[in-house]
Amino acid sequence: MKNICLLFAFFLLTCSIENNSELQRLEALNDVKTITTIFTSHQADTKQKDGKIVAIVNFKPDGTISEFIEQTTYPYDRDYDVKKEFWDEPNKALLPYIMDGLSLDAAENNLIYGNNWPAKYAKYLMRTSEKENTDFEWIETVGVDDDNKPNEIRLGRKWKNSIEEFSGIIKLYEYEGNKIIESADMHIVPAMNEVMKNTLQERLKKAKNDKEKEEINSLIKMQKPQKSNVINFNYEEDKLASIILSNRKEHKFYYEKDLLIKSEFYVEGKLFNTRLYHYKAGLKEKTEIFNMNSEPEYTITYEYEFW
Asked: Looking at CB atoms within 10 Å, which of 55, 141, 204, 253 has the fewest?
């Protein structure tokens, strides 16, 4: 009986420590004023870049982002700053993953926005200089599903005073609950498609045999918009487990409790690089990047300043 009581007490103590650790992590994140990422090389040809600041994020006292300045990115030789804009407020706990200058590619859209609004949409909205051209009518519409989640975003233009249809990109999103399970692009160029279709129809009339007709008909079918840049998102419970891209690239993610501890990047089925994520007191401390031969390439450290 005594042993059972001791085990129960140990269980309660362990739960208490874990809960307190998680609470401390959340409280620490709420008090963050600035996060700075710093580059360290493990390769002789890039040692001169050691200590270079990759990115800085400043927060307001209420916890929202004040500004995100990317000072450089891979291969860490850019000498000017880029201010990153966000359409939705990023998750502060996940923000460091896009501060290392080595993009997580499609994972950014899913991780940073909590499986909600895609990050790439913001990049189109920021192109204000292009919109100053008065010859075009810019089209930015968002279609939503029954749960008010974006499932079709149209980004394009049409000539003013013209009957030309929408010309641009339609971004499509499929969900399972609150999780994005697929995203894809469809490029719409109606004027070009119509010209090509008419040309092919003329060729079809002049076709000399069934084989030639079959080939032309297959080209006519190809004029219809098709999905491109397809990205599939896979989950284990509520955690993003893998991302498969149509260009034969794949990201895999591994967790310990609620923390991402490792990610792997594959190209055509072969491991290209590995990242190990380290934490201290629940906060992200550093990212180590290893090449396909498991040799260390870079380390990104995260420095925090608190209010």
From this structure: 141
Gap between the Cα atoms of 81 and 188, Å rounded: 34
d(CA 207, CA 215) in angstroms, rounded, equals: 10
Is 139 within 8 Å of 157 (Cβ atoms)?
yes
Mean pLDDT along residues 200-223: 81
Across residues 279-307, what is the average pLDDT? 92
Question: What is the rounded average pLDDT of the residues 293-303?
Answer: 93
* pTM score of the predicted model: 0.74
Judge whether 167 and 117 are in contact, CB under 8 Å: no
Alpha helix (H) ranges present in 162-277?
Answer: 190-205, 210-222
pLDDT 10s digits, 146-199: 887 778 888 787 766 665 667 788 889 898 887 889 999 888 876 556 667 778
H or E, element range at 16: helix 2-30
CB neighbours of 154 closer than 8 A, spacing ≥ 6?
Answer: 139, 140, 141, 142, 143, 166, 168, 169, 170, 171
Contact 138, 154 (CB under 8 A): no
Burial of residue 130, with CB atoms counted within 10 A of its CB: 0-12 exposed, 13-18 middle, 19 or more buried: exposed
Q: How far is CA 105 from CA 101, 129, 231, 288, in A?
A: 11, 26, 11, 17
Confidence at residue 258, expressed as pLDDT on a 0 to 100 scale:
81
Question: Which own/partner contact pairs does 189-197 have at CB distance under 8 Å and 24+ positions apart?
Answer: 190/164, 190/165, 190/166, 191/164, 191/167, 193/223, 196/223, 197/223
